[in-house]
């Protein structure tokens, strides 16, 4: 009887310990928590991604004399598109293997030779990029890094730092209710970003990665700020409690452009939603060139 009681007591203690187990430390302040989460992503070396992108575009009050411009306005007056993408990423080697499809509304049939979706594949191994489009043929290109020592090195660590710097500029962050993502208990945070901050950081990222050698044009940024004054960017992240790795993220751009030059009263609304689910974190992956 005593043995049974002791075993039951031990079992109960183990259950309580499991239920009350503490995960990775995280600040109580949501803004500070987001900073810690952003920095933590630098520890991810490999991952599997499932991405879904939805785009909506509405044009109102635009006019043009050129027939081609008029046709484009009709096409994009109430335009919707969707893209899905899935595959593996090895950030230590900067290698990727992704496969996806896109529904581009009335453009789909034209681009996909009559199919209902535009299908494509993308593989990067070392200095080579391989892309397969609707025609089924692989196209190879060289994407080797520049040997110019004056250009900053484009590494996963720098990319993670850019992400961290971006999230640290959040105008607001809040903690929402915890959820389970693919069976992983996760914290849920919502971050509000100023679109101009996002635009500025994107320009800095392009420079740091060598994608752009031109200096940031402050005049252009100031002009963009005028058009983006009624816009907002929302980022939601679901973060594993034990390791603080992002298991799912959703980015919503709600961009409303007004005061368009030579188009009094015209307005363009862009709604973009990008959802990314991350699995198989730091599991072995093999990415090879297509044959």
Q: What would your notes on this structure say?
A:
There is one protein chain. The chain is of the alpha+beta class and 291 residues long. The protein has a domain at 24-92 and 154-279. It has helices at 2-19, 30-40, 67-75, 108-111, 156-168, 195-208, 218-227; strands at residues 46-60, 78-90, 95-103, 118-125, 128-132, 138-142, 172-181, 184-193, 232-240, 246-257, 267-279. Strands 6-5-4-3-2-1-11-10-9-8-7 form an 11-stranded antiparallel sheet. A hairpin with a 4-residue loop joins strand 2 (78-90) and strand 3 (95-103). Helix 2 (30-40) runs antiparallel to helix 5 and helix 5 (156-168) runs antiparallel to helix 6 (195-208). It is globular. The chain starts with a helix and ends in a 12-residue tail after the last strand.
């Amino acid at each position: 009887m005593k043995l049974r009681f002791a075993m039951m007591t031990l079992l109960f203690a183990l259950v309580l310990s499991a239920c009350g187990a503490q995960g990775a430390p995280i600040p109580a302040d949501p803004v500070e928590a987001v900073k810690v989460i952003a920095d933590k992503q630098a520890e991810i070396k490999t991952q599997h991604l499932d991405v879904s992108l939805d785009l909506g575009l509405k044009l109102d009050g635009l006019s043009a004399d050129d027939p081609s411009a008029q046709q484009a306005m009709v096409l994009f007056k109430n335009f919707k598109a969707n893209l899905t993408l899935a595959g593996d990423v090895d950030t230590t080697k900067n290698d990727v293997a992704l496969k996806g499809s896109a529904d581009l509304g009335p453009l789909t049939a034209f681009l996909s030779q009559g199919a209902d979706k535009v299908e494509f594949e993308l593989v990067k191994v070392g200095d080579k990029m391989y892309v397969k489009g609707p025609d089924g043929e692989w196209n190879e290109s060289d994407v080797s890094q520049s040997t110019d020592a004056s250009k900053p090195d484009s590494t996963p660590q720098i990319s993670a730092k850019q992400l961290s710097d971006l999230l640290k500029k959040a105008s607001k962050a809040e903690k929402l209710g915890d959820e389970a993502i693919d069976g992983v208990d996760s914290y849920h945070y919502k971050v509000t970003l100023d679109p101009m901050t996002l635009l500025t950081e994107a320009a800095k990222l392009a420079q740091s990665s060598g994608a752009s050698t031109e200096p940031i044009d402050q005049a252009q940024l100031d002009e963009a700020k005028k058009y983006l004054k009624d816009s907002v960017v929302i980022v939601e992240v679901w973060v594993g409690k034990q390791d603080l790795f992002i298991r799912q993220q959703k980015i919503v751009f709600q961009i409303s452009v007004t005061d368009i030059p030579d188009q009094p009263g015209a307005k363009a609304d862009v709604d973009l939603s990008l959802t990314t689910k991350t699995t198989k974190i730091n599991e072995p992956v093999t990415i090879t060139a297509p044959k």
